[in-house]
Fold:
Amino acid sequence: IRETFAKARANAPAIVFLDEFDAVASQRLPGPGGNNEKAQTVTALLDELDGFKTDDRVLVIAATNRPENLDDCFAQFGRRLSLERGDIADYPRVSEIVESYKPDTIVSFAAATHVDRSIHEGNREFVMSNAVGVQTLLDVVNKYQLEKMVQVSTDEVYGSLELNEARSFHEDTPFAPNMPYAAAKAGGDLLCRASF
Structure:
């Protein structure tokens, strides 16, 4: 988290897009035991968000389909932060946000939890965020002639590996998604590849 925000500040003006924000910013358990990974992640996020200066020019967009799962602390934004609500696939809304903040870079951290929902509950939600949403960001990058868009994906677009398998995935590995969520992610990645 700290490395991501450091890169955003170094490349400002920039947008940091955190998809499925509830996966990293979910409710912490009350009481002692704050050293667990979830608590450390939430604390790191809060430190970074609280540490912005007015001239940092970094816009953080956090998307979630489960706002009720967010830790209460994220509703208490400081004076240097703005909460922008919207849908990544909503072109007019994303355009409005970009026009307002005037970044020159978009960083898309599109990831999801409970991805087996794409098998049991349908894939539409994932197609909308991971394919249509990515196309929306690409359209906005083109419309406003932004300098850069960085798409961060998932290894699941390359298929599956056994636990102790000797081979590994790399950027040249052909896409071979094995589940609907991964196929939606691969769709967004292919749109990025075709756009630049």
